[in-house]
Specification:
single chain; mainly alpha; about 0% strand
Length: about 80
């Protein structure tokens, strides 16, 4: 497996797991290997970009869902005869 593919796997594992140790296990690497990788500037840039993309995606989804929630709440409130 090439190093760029492994880097992508490590980044995905870091984004999906709460600890570096768990991410390392998912990626099939030793924790120390992931820690060394995380010190490399190129990896740091790729990881930072992936985190930003994930955050933006999450914010977009929250915005979409909050609009739906407000619309649903408006319908429920309009349908009630007395406030709950």
């Amino acid at each position: 497996m090439d190093s760029s593919r492994k880097t992508e796997e490590v980044i995905a594992a870091l984004l999906q797991n709460p600890t570096i140790k768990e991410a390392a296990n998912v990626a099939g690497l030793h924790e120390n290997t992931v820690l060394r990788l995380m010190k490399q500037p190129e990896f740091q840039d790729q990881y930072r970009q992936a985190r930003q993309e994930l955050l933006q995606s999450t914010l977009n989804k929250l915005q979409e869902l909050s609009s739906q929630a407000v619309a649903t709440l408006s319908v429920v409130m309009a349908a009630q005869k007395s406030p709950a």
